[in-house]
């Protein structure tokens, strides 16, 4: 993830590990069951096109799984997801819609 250079490598490594884990070992296949912060991180990182660097250290198989899941997540219908969510989730989807354009 290289949109902004991080000088704290520990924080950067934790962030990259969180992104990797969220699309591999902690994948729930439903945006409404995901932690909102993690969902926002994934969708906005995808919109910024910086996920390939975070997935680069993965094995070929894990890389393909991670990219496929992110592609599926990025292709959800934003307006439909905003209507389905409750409790402030509409704001998240509005921000994602703004970045997706």
UniProtKB/TrEMBL annotation:
Membrane topology: Peripheral membrane protein
Keywords from the named record: Golgi apparatus, Lipid-binding, Membrane
Gene3D superfamilies: yeast vps74-n-term truncation variant domain like
Annotated localization: Golgi apparatus membrane
Pfam family for this entry, one: GPP34
Principal localisation: Golgi
GO molecular function: phosphatidylinositol-4-phosphate binding
Name under which the protein is recorded: Golgi phosphoprotein 3 homolog sauron
One cellular component term from this protein's GO annotations in UniProt: Golgi cisterna
InterPro entries (alphabetical): GPP34-like, GPP34-like_sf
Recorded family membership: Belongs to the GOLPH3/VPS74 family.
Keyword Membrane: yes
Source organism superkingdom: Eukaryota
Coiled-coil segments on the chain, per record: none
One BP annotation, GO: Golgi to plasma membrane protein transport
